[in-house]
What we know:
Keywords: Metal-binding, Zinc
Low-confidence stretches: none
Number of helices: 1
Protein name: GFA family protein
GO molecular function, one term: carbon-sulfur lyase activity
Radius of gyration: 13 Å
Mean pLDDT: 94
Strand order of the largest sheet: 4-9-8-7-6
Number of strands: 10
CATH class: Mainly Beta
CATH architecture: Beta Complex
Order of helices and strands: EEEHEEEEEEE
Largest sheet: 5 strands, antiparallel
Family: Belongs to the Gfa family.
Distance between the termini: 33 Å
Pfam families: GFA
Amino acid sequence: MIYKGSCHCGQVVFEAAGSLEKVMECNCSICSKRGSLHWFIPRENFRLLSADDCMSTYTFNKHIIKHRYCPACGCAPFSEGIAPSGNYMVAINARCLDGVDLSSIEVGHFDGRSL
């Protein structure tokens, strides 16, 4: 299935393809403050529909994950990085997907705070 998503103001717009059956809640410092629910997909299943220069990027700690956000509204709809498997992945904040009932999706937990 193809999902559409965006930041709050609509400046950052994207499409993501896949089966949205489970999201991951991480307790690391940034994820817990943002309230992100991550849906991980391969980079080839992600398509940015807005210009790349309409976003800003934040990195911290080991600087291996690019946390992408809208400089206008501050919303952080996705992050990009290399998975432990070596594959390039996108972690979409499922809260930024249009028309998704999050109460029907399984939520897993990841202890990012202890890493």
